[in-house]
Specification:
Bound molecules: calcium ion
Number of domains: 1
Distance between the termini: 16 Å
Strand content: 35-45%
Helix content: under 10%
Strand order of the largest sheet: 3-9-8-5-6
CATH topology: Immunoglobulin-like
Length: 192
């Protein structure tokens, strides 16, 4: 069987990062204690979402599959008053991220938002990395994304993915949200 290449250039590359900061207030007074922000998401790159994979053996259709895209998210927890939290794991200042939601805006597509629970603890003054599903395989089994398989349809579709993360400070329960977005390019990218 001839080896066919459906590769697309990884175009529109740079992710649009709208890094929004979550500020935590102290329950005793109005002084802000922690500044929780996204250090990076998907390494600052657009999501290159492959709608179909030929698997390890590109000649054998039996291991072909529709991939799910997982991305790295790195959070930073910066104490706003270093005197208050001089050491990691000291009282007041540790935060946890406990759930997230992704909403897509993709031309001609009606993709339900999705998300779920997650757990990443970020000690005061530190960063922590987590991995979350950014694009479920189910999205790629419906039009117009399914039509991109083997270079069909319009070849490549560019959309936006909007992320919301929810968390709270461990010791006080003070809640915060962090929002960001990424460009997402869908195509049947090369599997080699
Ligand atoms: Ca294969
Ligand atoms: Ca592919």
């Amino acid at each position: 069987m001839a080896r066919k290449h459906w590769g697309k250039t990884a175009g529109i590359g740079i992710a649009l990062s709208l890094l929004v900061t979550g500020l935590l207030g102290c329950s005793d007074d109005d002084r802000l204690r922690s500044n929780v922000a996204l250090e990076s998401i998907n390494g600052g790159e657009a999501i290159q979402s492959d709608v179909f994979s030929l698997g390890k053996d590109i000649e054998d259709p039996r291991d072909d599959f529709v991939p799910e895209d997982e991305i790295s998210v790195v959070f930073r927890n910066t104490p706003l008053d270093p005197a208050l939290t001089p050491e990691p794991n000291m009282p007041f200042g540790d935060v946890v991220i406990t759930k997230y939601l992704v909403q897509f805006d993709v031309p001609d597509a009606d993709l339900a938002s999705f998300g779920g629970g997650m757990y990443v603890k970020i000690p005061s003054g530190e960063t922590a990395e987590s991995f979350v599903t950014a694009v479920p395989a189910l999205y790629k089994m419906q039009p117009p994304l399914v039509q991109l398989i083997q270079g069909g349809g319009v070849g490549e579709i560019t959309g936006m993915a909007y992320f919301t993360f929810w968390g709270h400070e461990v010791q006080t329960g003070d809640e915060f949200t962090i929002k960001t977005s990424l460009v997402c390019n869908f195509a049947d990218f090369s599997d080699e």
